[in-house]
Amino acid sequence: MHSIAARLSLAASLVLAGFVLITALALQSSVHQRAERARYERLQGLIYALLGASDVAAEGAVQVSTAELPDARLRQLNSGLYAAVFSAGGDSLWQSPSLLGGLSALPALEVGEWRFTELQRAGGEPLMAALFGVEWAVSAEHSYRFTFAALGSADELADQLASFDRMLWLVLGSFSVLLLLAQLAVLRWGLAPLRKLAAQIRAIEAGEASQISGPVHRELRPLSHGLNALLRSEQAQRSRYRDALDDLAHSLKTPLAVLRNLAAERQLPAAERALLDEHTTRMEQIVGYQLQRAATRGRRALSAPLALRPAVERLARSLEKVFADKRCNFTIEIDPALDLRIDEGDLLELLGNLMENATKYGRGTVRIAARGGLQVGDDERIELLVEDDGPGFSGDAAELLARGARADTHSEGQGIGLALAADIVRSCGGELSLQRAEQLGGARVRVTLPR
Amino acid sequence: MRAVVIEDEEALREQVVAALQGAGFNVDASGDGREGAWLAREMPADVALVDLGLPGQDGLQIIREVRAAGRDYPILILTARSRWQEKVEGLEAGADDYLAKPFHIEELLARVRALLRRSGGWAQTTLNCGPLALDTRSQAVSLRGERVALTAYEYRVLEYLMLHAGTVISKSTLTEHIYAEDADRDSNTIEVFVRRLRKKLDPDGQLQPIETLRGRGYRLNLARG
């Protein structure tokens, strides 16, 4: 479950569903019980009234005055309300006019015992029955035992209860839906500050903003303050670092240039001049290489993507100017929409070194091709090829790439530029390899970079 | 040839100036951005060497100003920040080449000569006009393969005329580009150099390499090739 909104919605829905279910079941059971008891109480009242309207002859015959019957429905056939009197042996002695046909077997009752049960009419109609055992004395020494029964149709109650149940579930269901909708609205409103924060971070990622701005809710304030502080310190540190490097480069390189030119002074002995020159060159290469390396920023998560083609075109124009005598011919095969997340300085440095090498060591034809959509593991990479029509790489590729790091050779050949390019590619999480150009026949540098 | 050097590091500036002067250049130099910008705009320069990091006004801005003022002589960037971003920005601002510090002074001179050649429309280091050949690297002049001995000033006049072969160069332009700012600017001496050149290059008067256009100046009339 990766979404807070989904978590909260699910939890709220489960709690709500449980709550509604338990409430409904409790309510239903209590209402059913009450309705049943009320029904039996009414039947009990009917029996008392029936007792009042009954008379027993000396020989034991039961007579009930129809006119005195407590409920008019007892006089209508199949009205749903019935009454009957049975002998102790279970024989029917009297039945209300509403009841036609017999009843299922009666349980035997003690005198004075009340029994509430379900019986069936001969036709199968289920009935709720209140039964009362009575001993009726016709003289001082003679008495009879009867069972008085009041019966009501069970279907009638069942219908009422079913209708109540329907209403209950309908009302509770509607309330649940309304509550759920209200909860979703509350959730949306409550999570809005988080969504806003996420949008601002996306804006920073896209390079449209440099800080989280605007009012922030109290609970998120520590987070936004922390993020802003982090961004500020990263920006400040980066520019401080760059300034320091710039100063260092400036302050080291100019004296080196003076020293280097001193090595050309004719007054000095030739051997010393050569030594001075050799060591100045070494110092110069070490300083140059390390400074370039240090200035490499690597891959930046919070930066806008840069289009590749314009950078290549800018460099091609620059190199055409610098190598005017070579009459360079740059072939650029790059989709204008192809972009990647990289520091602009790093991109120019990488392309500049590779394209300069290709121009310098080739015979003037340079091909730069790039394409996206290279899948390595989970991330998409772009592939960049820089090819020339020169003699190609000689010797071990690993040694060529490591040359800059050692900075102990005199030749400024492909080594320094290549090693620098390889460093930038590494710091961006990509790969660089040296190959032979198929069509042009010269050197080919293949670079893959995360997009 | 006249060069403007704008470099704030004094020791390096002096080395560069000395090397350029040794190679026959008249040099106007400054260590300040604003003064350098003025020199680059106003001096009759053939080439400028501009450091990017300068006090007063930075090198990129100087280059833009020079180009905005309509000056199209070649500009070489000298920079300690040898990142490609700066190089590209400098070249886009209007510079023609860059040289990362520290550099060999010979390389600097070679680049400057190459820029001058290119700005005159020459692709090779040796300028060939008819039977005349001038090697810009060794500053040697030969006629039909025979070495011709020239004085420094004679060489400068010939180099300038050959670089701009086919173009009319006024006496005042020649004077500006051959002499240092504070030197005696008598245009008659130019006539003397031209006369001596004609004598050395065309003793029998058949070649007629330098044409005089009355009131307008001189033109090297040999075909490039």
Give an account of the 3D structure.
The complex is a heterodimer of chains A (451) and B (225). Chain A has 451 residues and is α+β, with helices and mostly antiparallel strands. Chain A is 50% helix and 21% strand. Chain A has helices at residues 4-53, 154-205, 221-262, 270-295, 308-322, 344-361, 397-406, 414-427, and strands at residues 54-56, 62-64, 81-87, 92-95, 114-120, 126-137, 143-153, 306-307, 329-334, 339-340, 365-376, 379-388, 431-436, 443-450. In chain A, strand 5 (114-120) and strand 6 (126-137) form a beta hairpin. The relative contact order of chain A is 0.06. In chain B, 42% of the residues are buried. Chain B starts with a strand and ends in a 5-residue tail after the last strand. Chain B is elongated, with a radius of gyration of 18 Å. Chains A and B meet through helix 3, helix 4, helix 5 and helix 6 of A and helix 1, helix 4, strand 5 and helix 5 of B.
Give me some keywords for this one.
heterodimer, A: 451 residues, alpha+beta, 5-stranded antiparallel sheet, 5-stranded mixed sheet, 8 helices, rod-shaped, B: 225 residues, alpha/beta, 5-stranded parallel sheet, 4-stranded antiparallel sheet
Overall average residue pLDDT of chain A: 84
Structural class of chain A: alpha+beta
Main sheet of chain A: which strands, in order across?
4-3-7-6-5
The proportion of residues in beta strands of chain B is 15-25%
Number of strands of chain B: 11
What is the average of the pLDDT values of chain B? 87
Number of helices of chain A: 8
What structural class do the secondary elements of chain B suggest? alpha/beta
Q: Report the order of strands and helices of chain A.
A: HEEEEEEEHHHEHEEHEEHHEE
Largest sheet of chain A: 5 strands, antiparallel
Task: Give the helix level of chain A as a range of percent.
Answer: 40-55%
- Report the radius of gyration of chain A as a whole number of Å: 50 Å
Strand content of chain A: 15-25%
Strand sequence of the main sheet of chain B, in spatial order?
Answer: 2-1-3-4-5
What is the largest interface, and how many residues per chain? A-B, 33 and 29 residues
In N-to-C order, the SSE pattern of chain B is: EHEHEHEHEHEEEEHHHEE
What's the helix count of chain B?
A: 8
Strand count, sense and barrel status of the largest sheet of chain B are: 5 strands, parallel
Oligomer: heterodimer
